[in-house]
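[job 4471] stage=fold_predict status=RUNNING
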Amino acid sequence: QSSNEMADNSDDNFDAAMATASLLKWLLTDAPAVPTETLLIRAYCSECRALGLPIDRIFFGVNVLHSLVATRTWKFEVEKDTVTENSFTRQEYVTYIRQVIENAVDEKDRGPFYHFIIGEASVQLKITDEHLPNDCSWMTEEGYTELYGLPAKQKDVRQWLQNEAMGTEMTGGFTWSTKRDGGFTEGHRQVLRDTRDALAVITQLLLTRCNSLSLLQIYLGADAGSRVFDGDIERGEGLTVRSAIWFSDVRGFTKLSGEIERTEMIEILNEVFDVTHQVITKHSGEVLKFMGDGCMAIFTSEETGFRRTSSFQSLNNESIDAQQGETVCLNARKAAAELGLELEKLRKKRESNSKRAVSVGVGLNYGDVNYGNIGAAERLDFTVLGSAVNLASRTEGLCSKLGANVLATGNFVALDGNPDAWKNRGEHVVKGVEDPVAIYELTETPYK
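[job 4471] inference complete, writing structure tokens
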């Protein structure tokens, strides 16, 4: 039902004071329990329409704390019953604000959020206006009669560019659009103005929760970040994880770091870590840590690999290995093989630009890892430990000695299910392991 079809939205029937009080009550009591932005914008619109506000389209746009994304937006269209999400990178955001500062935004491109950025108190666009901005052409195309917008907080965001620090204060704003003949009444707009601050607080509360989870996942990994967010924060609490274990690092890193500029070294690491993360994630692994020039990851089955044990004790693993062993080892092998191909592409790209390229060694093992909270009472780390982890690291350390790019232990190869993909490189003494360890080199795919 569009706003034109609503029976009780005329000035005579609309009680702005009652609508304001009811909407504030909902925002302060029910809205905080809504778990996601998508559900919030739907529920908010439903509540507004039930109170007689003739809203047919709502748009939220706010800044977020994320390593790549600066702003996120949500648009809900009543007739289509769809929520559309979008995001803009930090660079896109900075570029647009610079254009605003330099007065380089053409007048026809000055949409609602342009006016929020320069600190205006509100924006109102009517279908009868002589000129509508380009990004509001949908008003004419879809039969909207008015757009009304308010910033989350009236502030000249151009000042932000002085230090390019997003900060934690919420910026952005909200727009409401209607298809009602004649647009919104002043009573409708008054309700939106009087409840804007509460809507901004609830939106920021929800975004703070989402930002917290996002940042934890970025810094700890998807699974570890989610576990910490959900309350797995007691020191000593954790899981025993039966998994394929991946260690990789940039070969000759110490020597190389003394030969090139720091900025180029960071650029190399970021490019290597990008492709490493991509192939590990593609093949169902999870990166746990980047450590200097190294990367640690695990491949496991959520259904069978994870077991909660307060003392981190290993259990009988035969049934677990039968269920997941071949699959997770195959995933790790495929990721290692694909990493070689991606690094070859990266090498050619860097050398074509007269830049230094690097090679990476990978060590694979299979076994139990201790996965959870370890550290000081006031400084915990969500990490993995155990002899299987140490052996994976020692295996990777043999790559330079054996002139290999991917090495695996006999434990790993026995479960992999494709012995033809591996060449036996003999038994080797490794630090911390009493008996010599059988080591195999991946040969199925060129890795140079």
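[job 4471] summary: Residues 4-9, 307-312 have pLDDT under 50 and may be disordered.
[job 4471] exit 0
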